[in-house]
C-alpha cells in the first residue's frame, strides 16, 4: 500500500495478492522478519531493561531517554534484516528487471554484500535508526508509563493480566501513527535502487500523492499488525518475568 500509486484498500490488495501471487505471498520476507525480531527486538528489550535500573522509573522523560538510546543501539543490529524484509515485501510490485528475487534473509544478505558492497546493507540507515528509536519509545516507554497510570487510577496489581493487556494496547495505539510516516519513507529509501524515487524530494512528493493522509498510508494494516503483536509480546514477557524473573530477597 505504501508503494502502489492507486488508492486501493487493504482488503482489495489482499485479494489482489492472493489472486495473482498466491496466499503465501502474504508472508513474503518472513525469514528476515523472524531473524530481525530475534536479534533487534531481543537486544532493544535487554538494553532498555538494563538502562531503566539507572533512572527514575516514574519519570517519563527518563524512560524516553533510555528507550531512545537502546532503540538506536539495537537498530545497528537490525538494519540489514529490515532491509531484506522491506525489499522482499515490495519485490513483486517492481518491474521484472528490478526484482531482487531473494530466496531468504541469508541469500539477501549475501547478494547485497556481493553485488552492492557491505555498506549497502545499511541503506536507509538514518530512517531505520529513527524508526527504531520511535518504536522503542512508543512501545517500551509508553507501556511502562501506561502501567504506572493504570495502576494508580484502577488500583490494579503489577502482575494483573488486564493491566498488561490494557497497557500494551495503549502503547500500540500511540506508537503506530507516530511511526507510520518514517516507516513509509524508510521503505522508499531502502528500495531506491529499484529504478525510481531516487531523490528525497521525489520520495516526499510520492508520499503526498493522496494528500495529508499519504503520510499515514497503510496505517490500518500497521495497526492490525502492531496491536496484537505488542499485546502478545508484553503479555508473554510479563508472564516469563513472573514465572522465571528475578526478585529481591527480603532480609528480616
UniProtKB/TrEMBL annotation:
- Could you tell me which residues the Solcar repeats occupy? 1-54, 62-149, 159-243
What is this protein identified as?
A: Mitochondrial dicarboxylate carrier isoform X3
- Name the family: Belongs to the mitochondrial carrier (TC 2.A.29) family.
Recorded hits in SUPFAM superfamilies, A to Z, give: Mitochondrial carrier (SSF103506)
Task: Decide whether keyword Ribonucleoprotein is in the record.
Answer: no
Q: Which UniProt keywords apply?
A: Membrane, Repeat, Transmembrane, Transmembrane helix, Transport
- Membrane topology reported for the UniProt record: Multi-pass membrane protein
Q: What is the lineage of its organism?
A: Eukaryota, Metazoa, Ecdysozoa, Arthropoda, Hexapoda
Record localization: Membrane
Q: InterPro entries given for it?
A: MCP_dom_sf (IPR023395), MCP_transmembrane (IPR018108), Mito_Metabolite_Transporter (IPR050391)
Extract one GO cellular component term from the record: membrane
**What species is this protein from?**
Drosophila hydei (Fruit fly)
Q: What is its main location?
A: membrane
The lineage's top-level taxon is: Eukaryota
**Pfam families linked:** Mito_carr
Amino acid at each position: 500500500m505504501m508503494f502502489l500509486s492507486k488508492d486501493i484498500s487493504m482488503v482489495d490488495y489482499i485479494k489482489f495478492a492472493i489472486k495473482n501471487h498466491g496466499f503465501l505471498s502474504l508472508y513474503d520476507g518472513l525469514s528476515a522478519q523472524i531473524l530481525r525480531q530475534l536479534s533487534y527486538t531481543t537486544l532493544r528489550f535487554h538494553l532498555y531493561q538494563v538502562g531503566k535500573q539507572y533512572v527514575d522509573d516514574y519519570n517519563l522523560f527518563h524512560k524516553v531517554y533510555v528507550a531512545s538510546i537502546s532503540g538506536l543501539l539495537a537498530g545497528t543490529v537490525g538494519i540489514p534484516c529490515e532491509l531484506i524484509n522491506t525489499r522482499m515485501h515490495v519485490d513483486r510490485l517492481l518491474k521484472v528487471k528490478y526484482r531482487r528475487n531473494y530466496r531468504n534473509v541469508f541469500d539477501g544478505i549475501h547478494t547485497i554484500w556481493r553485488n552492492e558492497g557491505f555498506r549497502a546493507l545499511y541503506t536507509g540507515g538514518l530512517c531505520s535508526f529513527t524508526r527504531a528509536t520511535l518504536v522503542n519509545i512508543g512501545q517500551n516507554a509508553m507501556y511502562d508509563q501506561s502501567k504506572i497510570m493504570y495502576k494508580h487510577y484502577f488500583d490494579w496489581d503489577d502482575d494483573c493480566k488486564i493491566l498488561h493487556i490494557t497497557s500494551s494496547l495503549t502503547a500500540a495505539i500511540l506508537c503506530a501513527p507516530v511511526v507510520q510516516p518514517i516507516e513509509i519513507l524508510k521503505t522508499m529509501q531502502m528500495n531506491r535502487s529499484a529504478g525510481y524515487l531516487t531523490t528525497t524530494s521525489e520520495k516526499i512528493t510520492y508520499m503526498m500523492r493522496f494528500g495529508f493522509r499519504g503520510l499515514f498510508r497503510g496505517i490500518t494494516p500497521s495497526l492490525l499488525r502492531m496491536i496484537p503483536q505488542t499485546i502478545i509480546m508484553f503479555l508473554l514477557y510479563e508472564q516469563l518475568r513472573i514465572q522465571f524473573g528475578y526478585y529481591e530477597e527480603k532480609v528480616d
